[in-house]
Amino acid sequence: MATQKGKQEGNGKQASASLSDEQLLDLYTEMVNHRRFEESAARSYGMGRIYGFCHLHIGQEAIASGASLAMADGDMMVSAYRIHTMAISRGVTHQEAMDELFGRATGNVGGMGGSMHLFKPDNGFYGGWGLVGQQVPTATGLAFSNKYKENGAVVVCFMGDGAVHQGAIHESLNLASIWSLPIVYIVENNHYGMGTAVDRISSLPPIHRLGAAYDIDHGEFDGMDVLKTYDAISEAFERARSTSRPTFLEAHCSRFRGHSMSDPGKYRTRDQLAEEKSRDPIPTLAQTLVERGLLDDEKISAIDKAAKERMKKVLKAAEEAPWPDASEIHTNVFAEGGTNG
Ligand SMILES: Cc1ncc(C[n+]2csc(CCOP(=O)(O)OP(=O)(O)O)c2C)c(N)n1
Ligand SMILES: [Mg+2]
What we know:
Elements: H1 21-46, H2 61-70, E1 76-78, H3 84-89, H4 94-101, H5 135-149, E2 155-160, H6 167-178, E3 183-189, H7 198-201, H8 210-213, E4 217-222, H9 226-243, E5 247-252, H10 270-277, H11 281-291, H12 297-320
Parallel strand pairs: 1-2, 2-3, 3-5, 4-5
Helix pairs in contact: 1-2, 1-11, 1-12, 2-9, 4-12, 5-6
The chain binds thiamine diphosphate and magnesium ion.
């Protein structure tokens, strides 16, 4: 890592070195489950079962799993709209998530939110926001609240590379720095916004440099490697816990599908995509675990088979799940007791 003052340099202690064999296998299994969930969502969207927007995290699963593993009870995660895997890592079941995508009453938020608005506050997952950058002031406010209450909780807040120029993000970083908030901001730099390469729209690269402007420790990591992801995020969490200082990290990653289901992805060549896929986080972890004697071909196939079978059942149940009742149409639209009733 970098050496300049203010940059996250790596504290020499790699949190991943203390993970047990069981935790490593769980991490791998979770990432395979994420992949199969997202592929099932893609197929269901193509079949007209999912309405509205649908943004997949295929290729970026290591970030959801690595970050979630770094969290302790009470910590909070906030993200944008590419969130199925994050919500699932924080305890939303595959069924609750898929039912929500299908718009069913049994969904995570009663079928009212859809793909972009999963929530699980009991496990520290605070969404799920559709406006680019919108989640960052919200996450910063949560961090302020945690510090005020002295509850020791740390917030991790994700945003895309296309979001970092939003004014509200700059205001948030400034406040996080002057108020010394226990928060870890992570830019998932998958190189593209909705269709334009980040290098064409940003004067920033490397994006993590933005942290320096607000006197925030900053750094970058390989978001295609779940163990490096876990190490970098754990170090930032440790800083937040021990010094109540924010960190601004850039995760280098790739999304293997379009921005959303309606994006044909004409802005990158087949060769470029193939190169990105050669760094797929799932086989990368598999190889490490094979080398450590924890996985072999047979176990890899068994984990994958179980993930596919689970998704078959989940899809069938989502198909059969009830729709929300029409009487629910105004539920959660207006605050109770407010001027609107
Ligand atoms: C305020 C606002 N402007 C525009 C949009 C439309 N929009 C949705 S996603 C997106 C690009 C975001 O790209 P990035 O932040 O890199 O995230 P990624 O989709 O790559 O994960 C845009 C412009 C929006 N949702 N909100
Ligand atoms: Mg992007």
